Amino acid sequence: MTTSLPPAGLSVRHLHKIYPPDIVALYDVNLELPLGEFTAIIGPSGCGKTTLLKIAAGIETYQQGAVAFAGEAIAGNPSWKRSVIYQDVRLFPWLSAQANIAFALESKGIPKAEAQQQAREWIVRQGLEAYADAYPAELSGGTRQKIGVCRVLASQPDLVLCDEPFSALDWNARESLQHDLLHYWYEQRKSVLFVTHNVEEAVYLAQRVVLMSARPGVIKEIVDVPLPDERWTVRRDSPQLLDIARYVNNHIADEVRKAQLLEQELGY
Ligand SMILES: Nc1ncnc2c1ncn2[C@@H]1O[C@H](COP(=O)(O)OP(=O)(O)O)[C@@H](O)[C@H]1O
Ligand SMILES: [Mg+2]
Question: Are residues 131 and 218 in the same domain?
């Protein structure tokens, strides 16, 4: 009997990235993620996490290696199918909250009226009706981030690339957006790659946690998180979750120390 491999999601092979003149951001990174997996990446500051996400999104180039998603090569070719959610999303300041979401849908080719209606549904689902016509400058940071996340998820990307998207938010906004993202992943079975500094967040959200070493970034270890896919049913203080978080914490502590030493040596 042959066992068939799961379909390939993000595939990164022998990836090297050097920022001129000589900053080695990624050194021979190899990563194979099955399609539809929720993966978290954790690693010390400066180890190349943002660089890796930008390369996967197709908005950053690289010198050596091969990067593909669902069998399609990514080499500096951005697409709405691979969208990044940044820590501080930039909305169009001249468009209202709802119009920002509708604009993303129209850019994807959805007709105007349909885009408006879908944008409205996202606003209602988030309980943000009161802010639908407000401009970004009139919104709190948490609400702006919510609209930014809706804008990405509404266009239904196949790969959602998250660069510490919730780290500046208060607890309520963070928890509510974590659950939105989990539901999107659970219902659509799209791939999510989630960079965070927060071990508890990584373990709470992801099916697997990728640990990166201090600069230059290489993959140090991949930790499975055998918790139910319906993560919103898991208590944050469940012993199993805390055990995995402790394990990840111990592994990462070494790398953080190395990164700090390197920072002192190099002065950045
Ligand atoms: N545009 C750039 N030009 C030069 N160096 C950069 C640039 N972007 C990032 N770097 C450097 O590359 C390394 C990896 O950065 P980054 O991917 O942002 O790491 P992380 O997101 O893990 O903190 C760091 O040493 C950083 O200073
Ligand atoms: Mg970063």
Answer: no
